[in-house]
Amino acid sequence: MKLLLTLASAAALSAPTRLPALAADKQLKTIFENNRRWVREEVKKDKDYFNRMASGQSPQILWIGCSDSRVPANRIMGLDAGEVFVARNVANQVIGTDMSMMSVIQYAVNVLKVPHIVICGHYDCGGVKASMENVDHVPPLENWLRNIRDTYRLNRQELDRISDKDQRTRRLVELNTLEQAFAVFKTGVVQRRRVQTYGSDQEPYTQPRIHAVVFDPGTGELKELNVNWKQELDKLGPIYNLYAPETAEARAERLGDGGAAAAAPPPVEPAKKKGLWGRLRG
Amino acid sequence: MKLLLTLASAAALSAPTRLPALAADKQLKTIFENNRRWVREEVKKDKDYFNRMASGQSPQILWIGCSDSRVPANRIMGLDAGEVFVARNVANQVIGTDMSMMSVIQYAVNVLKVPHIVICGHYDCGGVKASMENVDHVPPLENWLRNIRDTYRLNRQELDRISDKDQRTRRLVELNTLEQAFAVFKTGVVQRRRVQTYGSDQEPYTQPRIHAVVFDPGTGELKELNVNWKQELDKLGPIYNLYAPETAEARAERLGDGGAAAAAPPPVEPAKKKGLWGRLRG
Questions:
Q1: What is the ipTM score, two decimals?
Q2: Which of A31, A38, A273, B70 is least crowded, fewest Cβ atoms below 10 Å from its Cβ?
Q3: Which domains does chain A carry?
Q4: Closest-CA residue to B30 (of A66, A76, A237)
Q5: CB contact under 8 A, B220 and A53
Q6: B125 assigned to a ligand binding site
Q7: A201-234: per-residue pLDDT in tens?
């Protein structure tokens, strides 16, 4: 009990003011009423709306975001049901040992073949703020937050230089988002698909394409992080690349177009090898 | 590669028809344009909309749902940004060793003190369908799907009796949802909060209240599963209850209202002890 009290009194994790309506609605009748109204409205606008939904999904985006109630993916991006495959957890983490996220990415990339992965952080993130406190938020949550503390450590020099606490927190939100975007690149599933689609005639660009964005609940703005992907991935490639650059012969065999294609890509020079990850960004 | 091909050819996990617009939008300009339009519209309707968002979140519902793009929580329930804390993974699983989900539940229950947890499955669920195939969908996804195979096993007698494949799949969707709702009840975090709020004057009912619902993408309907909670939880309580029934003295001490309250709840009779979980449903 004492730990819970400590937790409740921590600034970042303060108990919310309660919106009375849904709390008082013991049976949650509101959501079922709202649902029936939504169905009526959609069918009125488009009588085939749900018939199309019945035929399966073909989302073009995997969204990896925070569980925070103020960050609903579809609304923020103005996209309809059926357009975004979604994973949400505390502080939008992409952790290599997290079977949940790894399964989501595998499904989205290998099965749905999404061309885009959007990893979205947000300012005023309770998880990020909690990770900046010297407080034990008790397991499993505290273990989860440790991944953000690790990101602080990787960027300590930059962060410690920011004297304003709010500004430092905002920057950690951005760096956390970026680090999770890198974590998406690290997965074998994503790298394999990018190798397969690199230079392929069947896709207009290497896929999946990864977008690091941050949402500001205070303004509603969704903005892309300013990243020099080439530079960042060139740095990380030598450690995290799981696939060596493809030889011309292997490419020809894969694409099944005989000798003609074999001549197309110039042989990879040793000096460029470590840049594969970056080049695959293309 | 061969495994991937096997996977792609499996009926439940077939590659989707591609919606061309977002796939062709390499920089995802669409979502940023949509976002700016959304901000303008919200501010036009209510100039303080984002100012309120800036002041933090106080969601009344934790939604645990599938990543499937056709099941966006807010839209289905007609709720606004700020009203639903969301966790989504493949086939809405609640697995005891999943740090991601356990952290989400801990945050939602201990910090946000949500009065409701909605666990939502949906018909035509790719994860559930995949779990009914004798196909190796390769790790980590296949390990993830095993949890649904386990639910099939627990309900084999009922499921094997349903000769129509579609009907059997629909029933497994329901049973999977129910089993994950039980898994929410199993957590110490939820049980502890329910013991704390049981009979408390500060809350109108024992919290969090758990709702098992299924969404039908083919009709848009969100429906509550027909469950005899008391009966189900009475069966499971003796195995999963982590807290013994509270004595009158302990309750008085906890509520800090001296001798008066101590007399209020009748002493728990041994025969009723195993029903605590069910009674706490109240």
A1: 0.85
A2: A273
A3: 56-227 (3.40.1050.10), 228-282 (no CATH)
A4: A76
A5: yes
A6: yes
A7: 888 899 999 999 999 999 999 999 999 999 999 9
